[in-house]
Design a protein that fits this description.
By secondary structure, the protein is mainly alpha-helical. The chain has six helices and two strands; from the N terminus they run αβααααβα. The protein has a two-stranded parallel ribbon. The longest helix has about 40 residues. The N terminus is likely disordered.
């Protein structure tokens, strides 16, 4: 009886060991990409960057115009301060204060965290990043990759060049355009 239990346990152990060896013996494929290079060499990204730069140029122009109004008002106030009545001087000072606050609000809302510029950049780049991720996922599935790293987002001390899928992703990206 004891030997039967012992043989059963031994048999189960051998089967489990054989099954785990089979699982570990399956090929694991690893690759990496350089997302910075992909973005830099992408025509879509260059187009998005040009649109973004044009928007930033307009926002900078608007900020410069607001600053010019403030500078002009400060200059007026300084040159006319002795000629203005106390009430008129206070009115101009209040106007200057309001313009400075409006300028700061504009700069914060446009260029600050979660500002118009950040949202616009995200709006332009997100579809490109999504397309790149779809291509990477398709390559991973079709060619049975277990994992694909992003060399620009993580530190890779060494990797064989044949594991670099960057060129392949760039080719697929170009083909989709």
């Amino acid at each position: 009886m004891r030997s039967t239990i012992y043989l059963t346990i031994l048999g189960v152990a051998v089967i489990l060991l054989a099954m785990s060896a089979t699982v570990f013996a399956q090929e694991k494929r690893i690759g990496y990409i350089d997302s910075q290079r992909i973005l830099t060499e992408s025509k879509d990204f260059a187009d998005a960057q040009a649109k973004f730069d044009k928007d930033v140029e307009q926002w900078n122009k608007q900020a410069e115009d607001l600053q010019a109004e403030i500078d002009e008002l400060e200059s007026e106030l300084e040159s006319q301060s002795l000629l203005l009545s106390k009430a008129k001087r206070e009115e101009k000072q209040n106007l200057l204060k309001a313009k400075k606050e409006a300028f700061q609000d504009y700069v914060d809302n446009t260029f600050g965290p979660d500002g118009k510029a950040e949202r616009r950049n995200s709006e332009l780049v997100r579809p490109i990043r999504d397309k790149i991720m779809r291509i990477i996922e398709r390559i991973a599935i079709e060619e049975n990759y277990t994992i694909i790293f992003d060399a620009s987002a993580t530190s890779i001390a060494y990797a064989k060049k044949d594991l670099d899928l960057t060129e392949r992703v760039l080719e697929e990206l170009e083909r989709e355009n």
